[in-house]
From TrEMBL:
Keywords: Nucleus. GO terms for cellular component: MLL1 complex; nucleolus. Residues 583-850 form the TEX10-like TPR repeats domain. It comes from Pleurodeles waltl. It is found in: Nucleus, Nucleolus; Nucleus, Nucleoplasm. Its main location: nucleus. Belongs to the IPI1/TEX10 family. Pfam families: Ipi1_N, TPR_TEX10. Residues 175-277 form the Pre-rRNA-processing protein Ipi1 N-terminal domain. This is Pre-rRNA-processing protein Ipi1 N-terminal domain-containing protein. InterPro entries: ARM-like, ARM-type_fold, Ipi1_N, TPR_TEX10.
């Protein structure tokens, strides 16, 4: 204690001692820490209750009384079915990234566009390597891929189109039909999407579906046709005259945000619309043909029966009729799922719907035409290639709409409505600069002064189809009653058509088909003999061109056949008229048939049918030409009869019925055709039957002219056909040395030459036809004498004859011999020799077969 510093204040009694300052500070600190020390002691005592017991090494922990038992036991369970499923999943095909179809389908809706694209491309590669996976996952593939039509990423849409191009050809229409409503709904969403790029890609999807499923797409046309209209136009509301009534209309739209120009976009849309209308037209045509076929079959089933006839000799006994077959019952077919519901029927299935669509699309097409024609050079009929393509599609769509109206309109009400509503506009916009030409791009260049040079019309045929389509549309609006009012533009069309026909153009099938259609319509509209003859002469000049392709030649042939066969219905040539070009064409048909030979069997068949139709009408020019070329047609070596297929051979054989006469050289050719084996046995028998019908022994009540075929020539044909071999061939057979196919016998002087089985059967069939003709001759004794004299003159000196000849001679004589008509001794001797030789051969053959058995 430091007391030295302690003082007493003023020495006053009872004064206070003052401590130093440092001691006061320590006292204050101690007084401040006393409460804290007491609180720490309390905390230390409180933690003693939760003191962790530290265990020594090796000492077991004491389990608390409130502890929970958490121990458990496990046991493995084997599931074979689950293991099999796992193995099957491991065996499923995968792509190069080891992803299966399910894995790829699950990635199609990924948020990342690159993942979606990779999934679609991987699915395409996987399905191209394993096409069988398409059927196994068809529902998932179709639903997932269809949802990608409206994807925002262009690369994903491109991959979708690529996958669809791979999958669609491998899925049949029957399998796709249940899913097509879903596909068409997504396609419609893409076509009407607010994003222009999605609309453009939807046309690519439409192309794939139309190529593979035109019928299914046509069944959804009610929705798609509206989409096509909306792609190139927008709805415009215009007030009426008084402002009270509003009428709706579609007007052509221009979108500057597109990557394509207005004309290019309209062209792309119109091309697809034309394809859809083409599918609708073809589908309607097929349905009408099926309906007509069903109606005809039903009528036949109700009105008549199928009969089987038993062949008998005429006049011997009653002919029994056996009813065969049953009425034709149409097959039951399931109703298509696509056509269920009234809203899903075809968009142009009725005349009212067709009228509504025509009223909405024709003004837009006229606007497209005006837009394309306004960008042309100073001469309005010279077109740029781009404008020509757009104008061609405009006319194609109108042409198809006209065809649909003709298919649906049976009483020509639609034709009157179309003429009243659109003839004036068509004449003003379309025919104003007719005919049109295509500008050659090489001659339509910029000059150094910045001016354009007007090119000359191109020498190609790009403009021809455009003009012909326009002619076809305009002529379809005309008829014979309106010819006077339409004579102005009809004369321009007639002049254009005549120039094309006479200028020697090398036309393809499509152009010629359209040209001949316009020509036929002009002939029907103006039934004037002079103008009709001028058109026919122009077509005949085109027909006379050399080296025409088969489709072109076939079209021309059909055109002339139509004129000749339907002249009575339309009276195109006038009463009692003879068109020189038409009859020159008819007389040249047999010559063309000979010259064509077998180079084109289809065209030869078409020529034969035309010749048959004209011969049935007894056309003198054709019959005289057919008579002059008959020996060339029926030549047994290189004639067209032995070169064409069996059906054409039958038609040629039927022409024998119309020939004015049957000369000896023609009968010789027909005999060789029957026995050489180049014709079927039924065709050869038909020749024998037709010649018998043309002979004087046919039994007709009316007399047959003897100038057609003499009796001597007819019997010569029958005996030569009965023999089956010519005299030169029989002479060659007499040298039997070294010939293994000759059956020698000591019981008969006649030896047999063994023919092959097919030749023997053929000869026997023809023999039956000859015997049928011989048995109908009334004077049997004279007929038997003729056969005897022929055998004695031509066969008696031969020691080797074919076995088929011996059998045929025996068959014919047995049909002629009866109690009133007996053969002579010489004939009996020859017949006995043939019988012994045949019997010896048959017995020898049976013995050899028995030994082999």
């Amino acid at each position: 204690r430091d007391t030295g510093n302690c003082t007493k204040v003023n020495g006053a009694p009872g004064g206070t001692n003052h401590f130093p300052d440092s001691l006061n500070s320590c006292l204050r600190v101690l007084l401040f820490l006393v409460p804290f020390c007491s609180s720490m002691a309390k905390k230390r005592r409180r933690q003693d209750d939760f003191q962790k017991v530290k265990l020594k090494v090796g000492q077991k922990k004491i389990r608390p009384e409130n502890s929970t038992q958490s121990n458990f036991r496990t046991k493995a369970i084997r599931l074979p079915e689950q293991l099999r499923c796992l193995n099957q999943q491991q065996l499923q095909p995968t792509n190069n990234r080891k992803l299966s179809v399910q894995d790829l389908l699950s990635q199609i809706h990924h948020y990342n566009a690159s993942v979606r694209q990779g999934a679609l491309l991987g699915l395409r590669d996987l399905l191209s390597l394993h096409p069988t996976m398409i059927d196994a996952h068809l529902s998932s593939i179709v639903s997932e891929v269809a949802a990608m039509f409206t994807d925002k990423d262009p690369t994903v849409r491109g991959a979708t189109v690529s996958l669809l191009q791979l999958v669609a050809p491998k899925i049949p229409m029957k399998q796709m039909s249940p899913f097509f409503p879903l596909i068409s709904a997504h396609l419609s969403s893409a076509m009407t999407h607010i994003v222009e790029a999605i609309q453009e890609d939807s046309l690519l999807v439409f192309d794939v579906l139309l190529d593979e499923y035109p019928i299914l797409l046509a069944s959804r046309s009610n929705m798609l046709l509206k989409n096509f209209v909306e792609l190139i136009s927008h709805h415009h509301l215009s007030k009426g005259a008084k402002g009270a009534v509003k009428s709706s209309a579609w007007t052509l739209s221009v979108n500057p945000n597109r990557t394509l120009t207005s004309q290019q976009w309209s062209l792309n849309v119109l091309i697809r619309l034309k394809k859809l209308l083409q599918a609708l037209s073809d589908n309607a045509l097929n349905n009408s043909e099926e309906g007509e076929a069903l109606f005809s079959r039903k009528d036949l089933a109700d009105l008549c029966h199928d009969f089987k006839w038993l062949e008998h000799a005429s006049g011997q006994q009653h002919i029994e009729i056996y009813e065969g077959g049953e009425c034709w019952i149409p097959l039951f077919s399931l109703r298509s799922l696509v056509s269920v519901g009234g809203s899903l029927e075809e968009g142009l299935s009725s005349a009212e719907k067709l009228k509504g669509f025509i009223e909405s699309i024709i003004p837009l097409l006229i606007e497209c035409w005006v837009e394309a024609s306004s960008a042309q050079p100073s001469s309005g009929n010279i077109l740029k290639p781009e404008s020509q393509q757009l104008m061609q599609q405009v006319l194609n769509i109108i042409y198809l709409l006209w065809r649909l109206s003709e298919q649906q309109d049976k009483i020509h009400k639609m034709e009157v409505w179309l003429r009243t509503k659109y003839l004036k506009d068509f004449n003003h916009f379309f025919m104003n600069h007719f005919p049109y030409f295509v500008c050659d791009p090489a001659t339509y260049l910029k000059t150094p002064q910045g001016k354009r040079q007007t090119g000359f019309p191109s020498n190609g045929l790009d403009h021809l189809l455009l003009n012909l389509t326009l002619c076809d549309i305009m002529v379809s609006l005309a008829n014979s009653s309106t010819f006077q009012s339409d004579s102005d533009w009809l004369d321009r069309i007639r002049k254009f058509v005549t120039e094309i026909l006479m200028d020697g153009w090398k036309l393809n099938w499509k152009q010629l088909n359209r040209l001949l259609g316009v020509t036929w319509r002009l002939m029907v509209v103006q039934r004037n003999r002079v103008s009709t003859e001028r058109l026919i002469r122009a077509v005949y000049m085109l027909y006379q061109q050399k080296n025409l392709a088969f489709p072109v030649r076939s079209l021309l042939l059909n055109f002339f056949s139509r004129i000749y066969l339907r002249d009575e219905d339309f009276n195109l040539l006038g009463s009692n008229s003879r068109n020189k070009a038409l009859f020159h064409w008819l007389s040249s048909l047999p010559v063309q048939l000979v010259q064509l030979s077998s180079r084109n069997p289809e065209l030869s068949t078409q020529l034969i049918d035309t010749i048959h139709a004209a011969a049935a009408r007894s056309n003198k020019e054709l019959l005289s030409s057919l008579q002059a070329t008959a020996c060339q047609i029926y030549d047994p070596h290189d004639g067209i009869l032995v070169l064409l297929p069996a059906e054409s051979q039958k038609r040629l054989v039927q022409l024998l019925y119309f020939l004015p006469c049957m000369p000896k050289n023609l009968l010789a050719c027909l005999n060789r055709c029957c026995i050489m084996g180049r014709l079927s046995s039924s065709t050869a028998a038909a020749i024998v039957g037709i010649l018998h019908t043309r002979s004087t022994f046919s039994g007709w009540t009316s007399s047959v002219e003897s100038s057609i075929m003499s009796d001597v020539d007819y019997f010569s044909f029958l005996f030569s056909t009965l023999a089956g071999f010519s005299s030169e061939e029989l002479s060659w057979l007499q040298d039997s040395r070294g010939r293994p196919h000759i059956c020698h016998t000591h019981v008969s002087p006649v030896h047999l030459f063994l023919t092959d089985h097919n030749q023997f059967v053929h000869h026997c069939t023809v023999t039956e036809a000859v015997c049928q003709s011989l048995s109908t001759i009334p004077a049997r004794s004279q007929c038997l004498d003729i056969i005897h004299n022929a055998i004695h003159k031509h066969l008696a000196d031969f020691l080797v004859i074919p076995d088929s000849m011996a059998a045929s001679i025996l068959r014919a004589t047995t049909r002629l011999v009866d109690q009133s008509c007996l053969p002579s001794d010489n004939l009996k001797k020859f017949l006995a020799s043939c019988s012994c030789s045949l019997l010896f051969y048959v017995v020898t053959l049976e013995n050899e077969n028995a030994k082999l058995a």
